[in-house]
Amino acid sequence: MHLSEGVLHSQTLIAGAVFAVIGLSIGIRKMDYQKLPLTALFASAFFVAGTIHVPVGISSVHLILNGMAGLFLGWAVFPAFCIALLLQVILFSFGGFTVLGVNLCVMALPAVLIHYMFRRILQEHSSVLTKVLVGASAGFLGVGLAALFASLVLAFDGGSRYQDLILLLILSHLPIFIVDSVISAIVIVILGKMYPSLLNLRT
Questions:
Q1: What distance in Å separates the CA atoms of residue 4 and residue 121, rounded to the nearest whole number?
Q2: Phi, psi (5° rounding) for residue 116?
Q3: Percent of the chain with pLDDT strictly greater than 70
Q4: Pick the CATH number of 2-199 from 3.30.1370.60, 1.10.10.10, 1.10.1760.20, 1.10.220.30
Q5: What is the pLDDT of residues 84-96, one digit of tens each?
Q6: What is the dihedral of CA 86, 87, 92, 93, to 10 degrees?
Q7: pTM value > 0.85
Q8: What residues form DSSP beta bridges with 59?
Q9: 3-class DSSP state for residue 60?
Q10: Where are the domains of the chain?
């Protein structure tokens, strides 16, 4: 869901950069350095998922997996996603340097929200059904909130001029809702069986 460079006005780009810097500072401060390998794992998954994409209007359609990453990383998704997005810009020219802050907020803020919505449920309930439901919900909401935030950015920046693009953005991501939900549910069930300590999530 990369927004393209050269579309948004400077005030939107500056606002996105400011929020991204705030998120990065919180993420670095709250990062559990004993879980750096896990952070790197989710950053890599996010990077790979984003490289397989289809351009749609001024955005692109691809797997996001931000809900799943948010469950385990919390605020650490900001530095993790920032590295992945930066590499995507450098290696594949996805998005752009000027829109990096906006794209980071669009991807990472939903992940942080999902972390606080579901982390206690995973801590207190260990059944497979709970993991499946939480994983599917995290995947669904991760994509949904990212689409919502991207739509709000476009509405703030261009108003009614971007109305058709916002509708196209949401409709084009409908298959991603399903795929992200399924992958997230499967991964959380597997990780819960292999590494149950990971479900003792931190803020």
A1: 36
A2: -75, -25
A3: 92
A4: 1.10.1760.20
A5: 999 988 988 777 8
A6: 20
A7: yes
A8: 56
A9: strand
A10: 2-199
